[in-house]
Write a structure and sequence with these properties.
The chain has about 130 residues and is of the alpha/beta class. The chain is built from three helices and eight strands. It has helices at about 40-50, 60-75, 110-130; strands spanning about 1-5, 10-15, 30-35, 55-60, 75-80, 80-85, 90-95, 100-105. Strands 1, 4, 5 and 6 form a four-stranded parallel sheet that branches. The protein has a four-stranded mixed sheet with strand order 3-2-7-8.
Length: about 130
């Protein structure tokens, strides 16, 4: 079992624009919304390769709930910690010639939430040890 950790999960809104012009209304040629963040990306690739894994990390607000839904929809298991305040981030990836990214900030992570993640990780370590090592 592989566990991935995403501290700042996101929804990645990927758009293609054929003829982007500053200062004008531009229309997209294509759009896609995917769950994102380094650990989530790894979990999705591992799942595609047939490797059993669980995505861990933090989500917040209705955006976080959508991230969780999309991760599960992609076939991945998850055990995200839901933060009580804030919103998970939305990143905009614009494909026009070179490409431009605008990444959101994401929610603040409290010390209590970090401690909750550390306890989650400690439980994983305890479960990996044999009974004689406990």
């Amino acid at each position: 079992m592989v566990y991935t950790v995403t501290l700042n999960a996101s929804l990645d809104y990927i758009i293609s624009v054929d003829d982007f012009r500053w200062g004008y209304t531009n229309r997209t040629a294509a759009e896609q919304i995917l769950p994102g963040g380094k650990g989530i990306n790894v979990s999705i690739v591992l799942h595609a390769l047939g490797v059993e894994n669980i995505a861990l990390g933090f989500i917040a607000g209705f955006i976080g709930e959508e991230i969780k839904r999309m991760v599960e929809q992609s076939g991945c298991r998850q055990d995200f910690i839901t933060l009580p305040d804030g919103l998970s981030r939305i990143n905009i990836k614009m494909k026009f010639r070179d490409g431009t990214e605008i990444n959101g900030q994401g929610p603040g992570i409290s010390l209590a939430a970090l401690e909750q993640l550390m306890e989650q990780l400690k439980q994983l370590v305890r479960s990996w040890r044999s009974p004689t090592q406990r």
